[in-house]
Amino acid sequence: MTTVSRTGERSRRQLHAGRRERRARPVARPKVPLISKRKALEVALDIIDNEGIEALSIRRLAERLKVNGASLYHHFENKEEIVVGAAKLALEQVRTPQTHDEPWRVWILRNARRLRQAFREHPDLVPVMLRRQPLGIGSAQMDATVALLEEENVPTGAIAPMLEALELYAIGSALHESRGDAAGPTHDVDPSKTPHLTRAFAQRALSADEIFDTVCEKIIDTVVMTTIERGGSIAPAASQRPAEQSTKATA
C-alpha cells in the first residue's frame, strides 16, 4: 500500500470515529438560553391544544420557536418534562389564597371552576393530569390547600375525599362539554324522532355552569357532613380551640 493510500485510509477511520463519538456524546445544555422557559411552554401548550399531545416533540417545538433543538435542552431534559411544564402552566390560575379574607367554600368552589375551565381549554392534558401526583404537578398547591382548609377547621377526614371528588367532577364536566353535548342532544339526532328529548333540552332550567356549581356545592356539603356524622377527625386548629377558650374562661 502506498503512503497516499495509507494516509487516506487513516483519514477515513478518523472521520468515522469522530462521527461515532458525536452520536454517542450526550447533548449538553447551552450555557446561555436563547429563549425563555415560559415562552417555550406557552408554545408547547399551543401545539398540544391544536395538534395533539403526540405531535409535541423537541424538534416540533424548536421549529415553532425557530431555534435549534439543542437550545431547548437548557430548560428541559426530555419531552415529558415539557409536557409536565405545559400542564403546570395550564393550571397556574388554580391557586390557594394566601389569606383568610373569604370563606373557604367560596375559594374552593372558585378553584373547582378554574380547574374545569383548564380541562375544557386543554382536553389533551387530561391523561397527564390523571398522573399529576407521581409527576409532581400541583403538589405544592395541593399541600397549601390542605393546610389552609385545616386552618379553617374543615374536618381533616373530609379534605382528601372532597378535593378528589371535585377534581373528578371537573374532569367529567369538561370532557362532556368538549364533546359539544352540554347544550343539547347529539347533532345526529333527528328532532322529529326524539321530540321529548329535544323539548327537554330546549327548556332546560339550568345552564352547564349552574349545574356545575350546584353539584360542587352538594359534593362539599355531603362530604363534610358525612365525615362529621362518622366522627371524622377534626383539623388540629379546631381541636385546640376549646382548650384555649376554657383557659380564657377560667382566667
Task: Outline the structure in words.
The protein has 12 helices and no strands. It is mainly α. It folds into 2 domains: 63 residues, Orthogonal Bundle (Arc Repressor Mutant, subunit A); 135 residues, Tetracycline Repressor, domain 2 (Orthogonal Bundle), CATH 1.10.357. Helix 9 packs antiparallel against helix 11.
Q: What's this, in brief?
A:
By secondary structure, the chain is mainly alpha-helical.
- Structural class, by secondary structure, is mainly alpha
Give the amount of beta strand, in percent.
under 5%
State Rg: 28 Å
Q: Write down the overall mean pLDDT.
A: 80
Distance between the termini: 108 Å
Count of separate DSSP helical elements: 12
Fraction of residues in H or I helices: 55-70%
- Total individual domains: 2
Q: How would a crystallographer describe the biggest sheet?
A: none
Q: Identify low-pLDDT runs.
A: 17-27, 237-251
Q: Say how many strands there are.
A: 0
Q: H/E element string?
A: HHHHHHHHHHHH
CATH domain class of the largest domain: Mainly Alpha
CATH topology of the largest domain: Tetracycline Repressor, domain 2
What coarse outline follows from CA principal-axis ratios? Answer: flat
> What is the name of the CATH architecture of the largest domain?
Orthogonal Bundle
